[in-house]
Amino acid sequence: MKLAQVIINDLQDKIKVDRGLEELITKAVELTLNLEGADTKVEVSVALVDNAYIRELNKTYRGKDAPTDVLSFPIGEESLMDKNEEIERLLGDIVVSLEKAEEQANIYGHSFEREVIYLIVHGTLHLLGYDHENEEERKVMREKEERTLRALGLPREESGL
Hints:
zinc ion binding; 5 helices; zinc; Collagenase (Catalytic Domain); 4 strands
């Protein structure tokens, strides 16, 4: 089985990103796709940014002039890969503010890594078409997020945060 191609771009200089975090991000995307029964022959781009960068994206694409934690941009196009003459679907882009992730990890009392991975899983589910516009959708999405986080060994703490 071919695993997803996860391309990580660190576009910020406020928080150090090490190889371990990059590997965990890749694993989180792949596991989310796998648990959802999604095609794993996809490409997902992950941009790690600061609050100023994500604020501009949020203002441009959502009309909200404030930093947010994660944005997802589904692509849904197909492109031909030259290497193996296979078709690889470009699933989309996930943008995570590492500054916001650090703030939220402190608020919720868990690790920075757990917060980043939660945001990656959340963003991947959005790329797969899940949303949380109403209570029913929110509940389904939260259950899927927690299933993946448990499988990664990063479950929600008993406090419910």
